[in-house]
Amino acid sequence: MQPRGLGRPKDLKKRQAILEAAKNLFLTLGYEGSSMDAIAQNAGVSKLTVYNHFHDKTQLFSAAIEMVCEQRLPKKYYEIGPDSDIEDVLHRLGFAFLNMLYSKEAMELMRLMSSLVTTNVELVHLFYQSGPARTQQNMQNFFEQVRILQLLEIENSQQCAELFLTLLTDCNYDRAIWQIIDLPTAEQLEITLRQRLQIFLKLYPKI
């Protein structure tokens, strides 16, 4: 079933309300504990309206994950042109990624998915495809444009993107996931980012 009438502002507003309600319930009650009835009630719409936009709860979950990623790391951060200051673009992209990575929403989602690995691996795979895999693909597409524009010495855009993400996702991420340490401050993220970018640009220097 395809979403119907999504071009109308009223429908777009309802769709957004459904996604926000779904996200909040998934984070507080878990996937199994969040019913379509509860999502409809929290969104202020009818259950039929929810099904008019989303075929089932699985599709709604996937869309909610995509929404979180797009809100935290919108397309503007991937924009690059021949006259772009590549270091400035990498800094803005990297900082936005770190803010998404360490956001309360992302932390709670990762903890939720970790708890479901042995009981609902299909949902975990869906989360991966809707969130982390999409981000990785966006990064790869970004670095492919950087390669084409000859802004950095890049031979393989996939390897470049994976290294960029690996450098930013350091050991503190695991510690934060398991609440061993507090979430880093903006200042701490800035320090981490500058250190990692120095390493990255040594491996992929400017042309």
Description:
With 207 residues, the chain is mainly α. It has helices at 9-29, 36-43, 47-53, 57-72, 86-101, 104-116, 121-130, 132-148, 157-168, 171-177, 186-203. Helix 1 packs across helix 2. It is globular and about 55 Å long. It starts with 8 loop residues before the first helix and ends with a helix. Residues 1-5 have low confidence and may be disordered.
Summarize the structure.
By secondary structure, the protein is mainly alpha-helical.
Characterize the main sheet: none
Provide the CATH topology of the largest domain: Tetracycline Repressor, domain 2
**Class from helix and strand fractions:** mainly alpha
- Overall number of strands: 0
- Report, as a whole number of angstroms, the end-to-end distance: 49 Å
| Residue share in β-strands | under 5%
Q: State mean pLDDT (0 to 100 scale).
A: 93
* Proper CATH architecture of the largest domain: Orthogonal Bundle
Number of helices: 11
Overall number of structural domains:
2
Summarize the helices and strands and which ones pair or pack.
Elements lengths: L8 H21 L6 H8 L3 H7 L3 H16 L13 H16 L2 H13 L4 H10 L1 H17 L8 H12 L2 H7 L8 H18 L4
Helix pairs in contact: 1-2, 1-4, 4-7, 5-11, 8-9, 9-11
Keywords: DNA-binding, Transcription, Transcription regulation
Pfam families: TetR_C_7, TetR_N
GO molecular function: DNA-binding transcription factor activity; transcription cis-regulatory region binding
Provide tags for this entry.
mainly alpha, globular, Arc Repressor Mutant, subunit A, 207 residues, 11 helices
